[in-house]
User: Fold these one by one.
Assistant:
Number 1:
Amino acid sequence: MARAGKLRHVWASDALTLKLKLRLYVAAVCSIMTYGSETWLLDVPTCRALNGANATMLTRITGKSQHDEAKKATTTFDIVRNIRARRLQWLGHILRMEDHRLVKKAVYHIYMHQQEGDLCMDAPVTDTWSELLDMAKDRDTWRYRVKVLRTSPCKRWQKMMRKMNRKIEIRLD
């Protein structure tokens, strides 16, 4: 909030386009606000708090009401979705690491003891750890998953992921 406040002269400027202001917001404010978010537990209270703070700051930039910025359908920038996409991207990177790496062992523990909002929340649904590792090896498909998550609202994301999982099953058969 402090960083967004320091940039209030930028948000009030008529010389900059809304698109540029949003890019500055993501780079200068969201990067600080979400630092280390790959390790957070994204449960419902955390997502609400992030969404509320994001909506408050975006109202200064866009001029929309805080209520409109808080809704998934009308928000200008969905910070929770952005965090989830970055976490999925990072998860793919970890899954492609060598087995002796400590971070990969930690992710294995998370995978075996899943809870709401953990790092594996957006990972494809698999029956085994080795199946998930095989999926992560296909970088193009994994990048596509990240792209879909970053650009699609939650219900569309879930529908597309189910469809994508069916395509992968068909290719494996």
Note: The CA atoms of residues 30 and 118 lie 20 Å apart.
Number 2:
Amino acid sequence: MDILFEKIYEPAAGPLWQRRFDALWPHYRKWYLSEGIAARQTYLAGHRAIKAHMPELLPTYERLCELAGGGDIASRFLSFYRPPPYLSGCSQAVWLGNNEPMLVRNYDYDPHLIDGVILHSRWNSHAVIATTDGMWGVIDGMNDTGLAVSLTFGGRRIVGDGFGVPIILRYILEFCSTTQDAIEVLKSVPCHMAYNVTTVDRSGEYITAYLCPGADTVLAHTRISTNHQENVEWHRHAQITATLERERFLLHRLTLHDDPPEKFIATFLKPPLYSTQFGRGFGTLYTAVYRPAQGQMELHWPGDVWTHALADTTSSKRRVRYPDTSNGKVSRTAQSR
């Protein structure tokens, strides 16, 4: 199947964002209501949660709700407050050679469920370039201070009170400048599922935070994250995604090799990091590279690189072909996104 990726440059949210939201909303709406409307929080609950935990983000949320038509369901969805559960694979690591830190990550997910959007905006304090989920949540991204973040699923089945992690990453990039700033957000904003967030800033300071509902955030001084936290709890998921094998491989590359940056990136495009499990929802959809010192990000696929810079104010598109997954197709209405 083919996926059309689009890089959108729109400093203030407006018609370009609205156009993409309108295209994606029918699919998101089905997924969002897949457990029934009674399972979802009210608009007022989401609004109050953002005001309580991320108040600086509230005007942006209200503006996006307006662009989305002001409907009740769309506004609930855009709050990212207690959404349906969703799973992903993913590997990520911080490379620190040559005094130019780099965040590299594989996004392992079902190709039917991806936004396919790189959003380059300036909604608040910082210019931000990021791949999106839910049209404003962040899967991975960077801002103009050189702070880069990305996420991986934490490998635990618990679901609780809190936000979908992509909006937490959005909040970080909109208002934080350093890893220390990001740590304060990661410690204070509740996440509704177990996720690992890795951040690195222009100085090379990094952290990986283990988020889990109902528990304090654990800060790990590690440059590597796959799909478990301190220990494996969901053994079946760990086997399917090979989380331990990928972690060991990355540890080996970072501790026993002195790879130049391009060689380190290339390891993400080969097994065991690169996954072909597209029919099971864990195929590698792209490798993202963030270079904070250069203000540059790239998306890599085998044989192809798509480069973007914060200084570049153009919009563009790239079509990517993935293996046919029709035999094991997962629609966006599936409860595990």
Note: The domain at 2-11+86-323 is CATH 3.60.60.10 (Penicillin V Acylase; Chain A).
Number 3:
Amino acid sequence: MKLSVTMMSYNDIAGAGHMSAAEFIELSARSGVDAVDILEYYWRDKSREVRSIPGLLKDNGLALGAFCIGNNFLVPEEKRAGVIDSVKSGIDTAVMLGAQRLRIFGGSADFARELRDARIEIVAEGIGKCIDYAEANHITMVLENHGGAPQTSDEALDIVNRVNSPFLKLNFDMGNFIFYAEEDPIEAAKKTFPYVGFIHAKDLKRIEGPRKYQACIVGEGIVPVRECLQFFKQNGYEGYVSLEYEAWDTAGSMQGVSPSLEYLKKVLNEI
């Protein structure tokens, strides 16, 4: 397995406009990872940066684990064509960057639980309208389990099976299974393994209050990170494990990313 880090891990800095993609790449190279994930959210001058990033990655000895967008298919019907266009645009950007994977979402609308089938159908239909374009451009879309749809492993599998294409895989986010679905990530891994094309590693602590969980430095919380990665390793997964650090409120990225990466390196070396 290869270690990556997503630019989202530095959201407290990049989101405020204080870190460019180039600076992120250079910082990540010094941290000893194999790859980085670039996100649509942080462009300053997209056309210039997209042209420069392949060279920056080569100069810094890094691969591009994935390009990531933040689409939402769970919008009113009249807006869904625009979402499909945005996903296709993400595929175009992934091609220009030299990525092989595009991280996508299903949707984030707060639909009632009884509308589960409707949510899944909308997301599967939207992805289905992008899948031929992904295939034509040799880009594998990796669908993250997130809020809205899909949240659970069953929902993720339902969407993948409905689309039924080798160009749609799952982005297995071990922390999101707990945070959004109260689901054991190990059991989710056992269900989804054949369809996993990318992995997000993060950690959580239990807290009092309606949110129940708070992000923390990886290795210090309740997410069975080692056990998840060991399961994937034992079953032949050879792809990327990407740190998605989100504990910016309690330990800013410049304090939390490094120990999280060191923990992941240690685990990957030991399993």
Note: The two ends are 10 Å apart (CA to CA).
